[in-house]
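#structure-requests
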Amino acid sequence: MDRRDIKALLDRVSAGHLAVDSALDALTAMPFEDIGVAQIDHHRALRTGMPEVIFGEGKTSAQIAAIVLAMVARGGNVLATRVSSEKAAQVSDLLDARREAGDPLPDWSYDVEARTFSMRQRPFEDMGRGLVSVVCAGTSDLPVAREAVVTAEMMNNRCELIVDVGVAGLHRVLAHRERLVRSEVIIAVAGMEGALTGVIAGLVGRPVIGVPTSVGYGVSFSGVSALLTMLNSCAPGVTVVNIDNGYGAAAAATLINRRREG
């Protein structure tokens, strides 16, 4: 449940279309649900504006499917990150079996590059003040950038992906400056030395969220070099998330971009 669900529930009570006891039952069941393999935080979207997202790495396909089914039963959209192609196929088979047994499940999709498994039950509703731009230094950084894009779109942001504009060719970044200036917030994804984040922050007056990736040769230390470069940026307005954390960057961008109600 999110704020819209609660408002709709209270409107039905106010209009006399729903009994107070029925509304109380709905609210009582709202906070979390224990399904054995997980305690799903259905209350998170109401508290934080961001629904719970399934982290697929380390979970079995059966556990992911069970959590997906419990979440989809509440009527919201569902997103799982870090889901391998093999697990995605197994989850799809499990959901297909439930659908054949009569469960009215919505369609789902798998992004092999982003490694995201998603179900959208509610149509896209632009909830942002503007555009979230995801800028990717190199093609090798695309899996993390795509994770950020899919997450941002599932969180109802308009999103744009700009690919392969690393600092080895600064003219490529400059060619997109007008698009970056139109953005409300920018996610900069880069491995190697990670300099792209500071370069973008020095070009435009927008919040820039740096995402270091584990792409690079030996002394890049699996993303630590990029992380330290971004943390030490002298350009103002830079914040940095963990290595390869496209989801975390998109979540932060969502909260920055979100229109405030009331």
